[in-house]
Amino acid sequence: MKRETYYDEKKRLLKTSRYQLIQNMIQNIFLASHKTYGYHRIHRQLLNQGVKFFSNTVLKFMHILNIL
Fold first, then answer.
1. What is the radius of gyration, based on Cα positions, of the chain?
2. How far apart are CA 24 and CA 20, in angstroms?
3. Cβ partners under 8 Å of residue 59, min gap 6
4. I need a surface site. Which of 18, 27, 38, 39 has the fewest CB within 10 A?
5. What is the pLDDT of residue 43?
6. Residue 68: its H or E element
7. Cα–Cα distance between 62 and 4 in angstroms, integer?
8. Phi-psi region of 8 (alpha: psi -120 to 50; beta: other; left: phi over 0)
9. Could you read off the pLDDT of 6-55 as tens digits, one per residue?
10. Selection from 56, 66, 63, 67 nearest residue 33 by Cα
11. Can you tell me the distance from the alpha carbon of 63 to that of 42, in angstroms, rounded to the nearest whole number?
12. Residue 64 near residue 25, CB atoms below 8 Å
């Protein structure tokens, strides 16, 4: 395996696990709000917890999770 390929695959694996963590956080915030929060409020909650993503990314993840 080429060196470049190895590090590219390693970076991809870290990226997907990070996105999975964010999706779990979004789902937990949504369920804790009794399924009433939209993407703006969830985005604000994530910012309060120190997670920095654009609100459009939160919206995309909510569509992936089918909670919108």
1. 15
2. 6
3. 39, 68
4. 18
5. 97
6. none
7. 33
8. alpha
9. 888 888 877 777 789 999 999 999 999 999 999 999 999 999 999 998 99
10. 67
11. 13
12. no
CB contact set of 44 (below 8 Å; sequence gap of 6+): none
21 phi, psi to nearest 5 deg: -65, -45
What is residue 15's predicted lDDT score, i.e. its pLDDT?
74
Among all chains, which residue has been given the structure tokens 């937990």? 28
Q: How far is CA 47 from CA 10, 12, 15, 58, in A?
A: 27, 24, 19, 11
Q: Is the pLDDT of residue 5 over 80?
A: yes
Rounded to a whole number of angstroms, the distance between the first and last alpha carbons of the chain is 42
As a residue count, the chain comes to: 68
